[in-house]
Amino acid sequence: MSDSASNEQKPSQRVLKAVMGQEEALGPFSNLPGVWKNTGQFSGHGWNMIALPFPTGELDYRLLNNQYNETLTFQLVDKNVPNRGMNGDQEVETIDYVQQIEQIAAADFPDSGLAGGSGLAIHHEPGLWLYMKNHTTDDLNIARLSSIPHGDSLMALGQSAQSKTGFEIPKISGLPIGVDDNLEENPYLIPYLHFHKHLFENVFDPTQPNDLLNKAILPFFQQGKVANVTQLKVDSRLASGGVNNIPFVVRQANADQVEATLWIYELTEKHPNGEPKMLLQYSQIVMLDFFERRDGQGLIKWPHVSINTLEKQPTS
Q1: What is the pLDDT, as a whole number, of residue 297?
Q2: Tally of CA atoms within 13 A in the half-sphere of 202 that contains its CB
Q3: Is 252 helix (H, G, I), strand (E, B) or coil?
């Protein structure tokens, strides 16, 4: 055997297994395996807002708000997935997830009678998170693949980062893009003005949804209870990402782009079994395109925003 042949690095062996605890090989996803829920003080901390076509209303749309509880499960780990290439192979670590969301309360304006009551299943999403260990493009080292039963599939790429002091949770607006955004004076925005003045469940303002994420996590930083934070930020507009939808969705309210950020907080406190307590927050914006802009520059973009704060459940 030649020296060059003996020095060649052997490819890592691919391993597929169920994991419910920390898995270091997953890199930025190492703390994800397990079950995350809205429990304890974070029960009911899931909030969603979406504008929907409503042909029987004066404005042709209604603004729907939901409060929800969620179960987010990360379990099946596929390690050392090889992508074959001419200039070397790419190695990918993956973990699958299933998101299940149950409504606690809902209200829309104008009132359509369609919002539904407590206990209604309002979202189900299976998917994968990918950690690309080498051969990255433009420093994009993570990806999210997901599908939902409405007939939408997503591939969003992005970057991971870690910090001991945390990351800024940006202020975002839920107002549509492509119309006059003067909330007080534009009559087209009456549904948003209604929930801005009369907060949904006396808590949620769809014009500034991320404020609740900051309110939930700030006390943990003020009390020195955060040991480490991992940020996962992905966007369907980056590189080869994108959203594909079935024809009905494209014609009626096309989901055109998705931007999502997850923050994973490892706390200084521990469970009785010795596992660190952890929180997960996310903010996701899906842009829906429907109705022509008055300036003739395409369609109005309607932010569909979801936010939540969840606790990781101890393994035993």
Answers
A1: 87
A2: 0
A3: helix
Residues counted in the chain: 316
Handedness of CA 182, 186, 192, 197 (dihedral sign): positive
Residues contacting 23, CB < 8 A, separation 6+:
29, 30, 33, 77, 95
For 33-56, what is each residue's pLDDT tens digit? 999 999 999 999 999 999 999 998
DSSP 24: G
Contact present, 210 and 200 (Cβ < 8 Å): no
* C-alpha span between 113 and 72 (Å, rounded): 29
Q: Helices in the chain by DSSP H: which ranges?
A: 3-6, 190-197, 211-222, 247-253
Look up the pTM and report it.
0.94
Taking the alpha carbons at both ends of the chain, their separation in whole angstroms is 51
Burial 246-266 (b: 16+ CB within 10 A, else e): eeebeeebbbbbbbbbbbbbb
Number of H helices, E strands in the chain: 4, 13
Burial letters 197-236, b for 16+ CB under 10 A, else e = eeebeeebbbbebbebbeebbeebeeeeebebbbbbbbbb
CB atoms within 10 A of CB 51: 25
